[in-house]
């Protein structure tokens, strides 16, 4: 018996009857010889962790554009916090922790430069729209490895695609990531907003504090414990009605006071204008797009707009800014110190 088979047997013996077992995966689009050491979800986790799209997340905006300070979250630090939340919950419920981790690490691979500002522009300009969850799946299925993709299992791709709250993953591990994503961004965005002096802890409504806790640590503890206690021995991942309602009120508060706050978003129109200008430029100058993107679109007849959208979506904030400088500023103005 191989090490992988031993690990698969341990899953059958130790995990909840509601867990997604590695040996029971629906598999990959392209069959591969099984690894002798790693079960399939561990293999997927490793592929995501080592892919180029994952590394680029470190230089993509979470909420605040080009913040001045080392402690603001990026899309990468957000992803790691989601992963940690998901692993904690999955382990406590005896679900497949590695599957939850793989989904969490891959869920935001498709995010654009400048966060949701960039996504909003591409959604308007790309034929058929642009949604980062769908782009994340496109990256792992097609764009990575020059068109070969990562060939991940169905369960990981399903969790990535359906991590938004309006959607429904087919595994409990995917549902865990769906909650973990919201818990992570609400709390770390609040922390960043306080650091940026957009928000104060005392601005948070007292009733929410009474229900969830008076500090970030207390609120995280309340939410994670509540999910675990209400989801044990159930074929679902849920919060209690009281905590769920308080969490929705907290999310509404954050949208009103941070995500739609004119102070936090005062630079967003500039970022949107930059992305739109790049999109216009590349549709008119396809020779400036890497050949691999054009080749992929020729193969699936997706067209130039899709190639441009794929290329821009993969850019980091800094790279998008450098391209804009190159194409739209006089050469003497192209250094930051000018």
Descriptive overview:
By secondary structure, the protein is mainly α. It has helices at residues 3-14, 40-50, 52-56, 75-92, 97-106, 115-125, 132-143, 154-161, 172-195, 206-212, 216-231, 241-259, 268-284, 291-300, 304-313, 317-328. The model has no long low-confidence stretch (mean pLDDT 93).
Return the string of H and E elements.
Answer: HHHHHHHHHHHHHHHH
How many domains? The number is: 1
Number of helical regions: 16
What is the share of helical residues?
55-70%
Short description:
Helices cover 60% and strands 0% of the residues.
Give short descriptive properties of this protein.
338 residues; 16 helices; Hypothetical protein af1432; mainly alpha
């Amino acid at each position: 018996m191989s090490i992988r088979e031993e690990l698969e047997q341990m899953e059958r013996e130790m995990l909840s009857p509601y867990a997604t077992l590695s040996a029971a995966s629906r598999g990959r689009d392209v069959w591969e010889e099984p690894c002798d050491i790693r079960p399939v979800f561990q293999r997927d986790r490793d592929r995501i962790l080592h892919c180029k799209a994952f590394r680029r997340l470190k230089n993509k905006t979470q909420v605040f554009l080009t913040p001045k300070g080392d402690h603001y979250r990026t899309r990468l630090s957000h992803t790691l916090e989601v992963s940690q939340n998901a692993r904690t919950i999955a382990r406590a419920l005896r679900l497949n922790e590695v599957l939850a981790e793989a989904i969490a690490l891959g869920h935001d691979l498709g995010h654009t430069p400048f966060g949701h500002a960039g996504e909003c522009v591409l959604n308007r300009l790309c034929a058929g729209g642009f949604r980062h969850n769908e782009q994340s799946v496109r990256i792992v299925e097609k764009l990575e490895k020059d068109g070969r993709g990562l060939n991940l299992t169905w369960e990981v791709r399903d969790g990535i695609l359906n991590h938004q709250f309006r959607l429904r993953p087919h595994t409990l591990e995917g549902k865990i990531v769906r909650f973990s994503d919201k818990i992570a961004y609400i709390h770390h965005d609040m922390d960043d907003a306080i650091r940026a002096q957009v928000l104060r802890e005392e601005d948070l409504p007292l009733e929410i504090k009474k229900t969830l806790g008076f500090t970030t640590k207390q609120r995280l503890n309340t939410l994670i414990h509540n999910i675990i206690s209400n989801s044990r021995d159930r074929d679902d991942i849920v919060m209690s009605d009281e905590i769920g309602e308080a969490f929705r009120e907290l999310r509404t508060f954050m949208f009103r006071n941070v995500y739609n706050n004119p102070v936090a978003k005062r630079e967003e129109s500039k970022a949107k204008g930059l992305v739109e200008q790049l999109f216009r430029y590349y549709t008119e100058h396809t020779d400036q797009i890497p050949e691999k993107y054009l080749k992929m679109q020729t193969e699936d007849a997706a067209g130039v707009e899709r190639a441009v959208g794929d290329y821009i979506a993969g850019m980091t904030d800094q790279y998008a800014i450098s391209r804009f400088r190159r194409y739209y500023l006089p050469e003497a103005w192209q250094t930051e110190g000018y």
